[in-house]
Amino acid sequence: MDDLLERLLDLYEHTPVLVAAYDGFDRLRYANRAFRAAFFVGPDEQPSWSEIIRRNHREGRGTVIRNPDLEAWLTSTQSRRGKVGYRAFETDMVDGSWLYMTETVQPNGWMLCIASDVTRLRPDERSVRQDLDFAIKASNTDELTGVANRRYTMARAAEMLQARDEARSGNGAFALLDLDHFKSINDRFGHQTGDRILEDFVKRLQPLVRRADCFGRVGGEEFALVLPKTPVEEAVLIVEKMLSMIRMNRPLPERPDFAYTFSAGVAAIAPADTLTDLYGRADKALYLAKVSGRNRIEVNISQRNRSSATL
């Protein structure tokens, strides 16, 4: 087996195909020579994906990023990266090359990336496929904040329930996060400031979202967090960390005393939950958090979960 592994690694090292593996925290754990050359990664380095993107962008190399706001681009891309079991897309590089990439994600969060250089294909064919890729991204993205939209987020929640039905995972949680007194923020400071608060909310929370989870905007000031294979107790700890982050935040430089908070409802998936059931229980918990004073988290655990927990 060791000899076979050595042979495979040697093949990977000398193939022109780009091969890389990221762990569940999106840190590069393996990359062959072709991948390291394309993305300027040293032989002994293990940077995170975002670190690779940031430093290559700073040096004017690597992936072409058309959004002038790099951090907004990262927020948007990370809201979709690694959220589905498999996806394929194309990307152009600063040096003029064109890559066809695939991402395969295992249940434990590890991701295998394989890319081929397709620069020789006709430019008009590449343009058509890139336009299609942009259209797909736009259909899954909230226009204002750049994170996943309601359709994409709820699809990930449905996949979490499907994994339960296929006995791949019995755990999972769903949370609804709603900004407190958001209407009064709009009324007092104007809708442009309200938009800035929504953008700030996403900017602060996205780095706290694990790659296997999905964070998206599902309404005006309402967001959802899908947490596959996560016990409800762990889900609450994650949301509490987010709430602490927002409590300490001061998003408006021109108003240094201004702060905002959010309320959250968390629901653990139950054995027979439908998506409507799960959303409804999280919504009930959110309502309880609102009427109990806001700036807090409430949990809704179904009777079925309670019964199983006491056995």
Topology overview:
Blueprint: H1 2-14, E1 18-22, E2 28-31, H2 33-39, H3 49-58, H4 70-78, E3 86-92, E4 98-105, E5 111-117, H5 123-139, H6 150-165, E6 172-179, H7 182-189, H8 191-205, E7 214-217, E8 222-228, H9 232-248, E9 262-268, H10 275-291, E10 297-300, H11 303-310
Parallel strand pairs: 9-10
Antiparallel strand pairs: 1-2, 1-5, 3-4, 4-5, 6-8, 6-9, 7-8
Helix pairs in contact: 7-8
What can you tell me about this protein's structure?
This protein is globular. The chain folds into two domains: 2-139, Beta-Lactamase, CATH 3.30.450.20; 150-310, Reverse transcriptase/Diguanylate cyclase domain (Alpha-Beta Plaits, 2-Layer Sandwich). Strands 2-1-5-4-3 form a five-stranded antiparallel sheet. A five-stranded mixed sheet has the order 7-8-6-9-10, with helices on both faces. Helix 7 (182-189) packs across helix 8. The protein has helices at 2-14, 33-39, 49-58, 70-78, 123-139, 150-165, 182-189, 191-205, 232-248, 275-291, 303-310; strands at residues 18-22, 28-31, 86-92, 98-105, 111-117, 172-179, 214-217, 222-228, 262-268, 297-300. It has 311 residues and is of the alpha+beta class. The relative contact order is 0.10.
